[in-house]
Amino acid sequence: MNSAADNSPERLVHVPLGERAYDILIGPDLIAHAGGEITARLKGRKAAIVTDEHVAPLYLEALMDSLQTDGIEAVSLTLPAGEKTKSVEPLVAVCDMALSARIERNDCIIALGGGVIGDLAGFAAGIVRRGVRFVQIPTTLLSQVDSSVGGKTGINTRHGKNLLGVFHQPDLVLSDTGALDTLSEREFRAGYAEVAKYGLIDKPDFFAWLEKNWRAVFAGGAARAEAIAISCQAKADVVVEDERETGRRALLNLGHTFGHALEAATQYDSRRLVHGEGVAIGMVLAHRFSARMNLASPDDAARVEAHLKAVGLPTLISDIPGEALPTEVLMNAIAQDKKVKGGQLTFILTHGIGQSFIADDVPASEVQSFLEETQKG
Amino acid sequence: MNSAADNSPERLVHVPLGERAYDILIGPDLIAHAGGEITARLKGRKAAIVTDEHVAPLYLEALMDSLQTDGIEAVSLTLPAGEKTKSVEPLVAVCDMALSARIERNDCIIALGGGVIGDLAGFAAGIVRRGVRFVQIPTTLLSQVDSSVGGKTGINTRHGKNLLGVFHQPDLVLSDTGALDTLSEREFRAGYAEVAKYGLIDKPDFFAWLEKNWRAVFAGGAARAEAIAISCQAKADVVVEDERETGRRALLNLGHTFGHALEAATQYDSRRLVHGEGVAIGMVLAHRFSARMNLASPDDAARVEAHLKAVGLPTLISDIPGEALPTEVLMNAIAQDKKVKGGQLTFILTHGIGQSFIADDVPASEVQSFLEETQKG
Ligand SMILES: NC(=O)c1ccc[n+]([C@@H]2O[C@H](COP(=O)([O-])OP(=O)(O)OC[C@H]3O[C@@H](n4cnc5c(N)ncnc54)[C@H](O)[C@@H]3O)[C@@H](O)[C@H]2O)c1
Ligand SMILES: NC(=O)c1ccc[n+]([C@@H]2O[C@H](COP(=O)([O-])OP(=O)(O)OC[C@H]3O[C@@H](n4cnc5c(N)ncnc54)[C@H](O)[C@@H]3O)[C@@H](O)[C@H]2O)c1
Ligand SMILES: [Zn+2]
Ligand SMILES: [Zn+2]
Question: Which positions does UniProt annotate for NAD(+) binding (chains A, B) (predicted)?
Answer without folding.
Answer: 115-119, 139-140, 152, 161
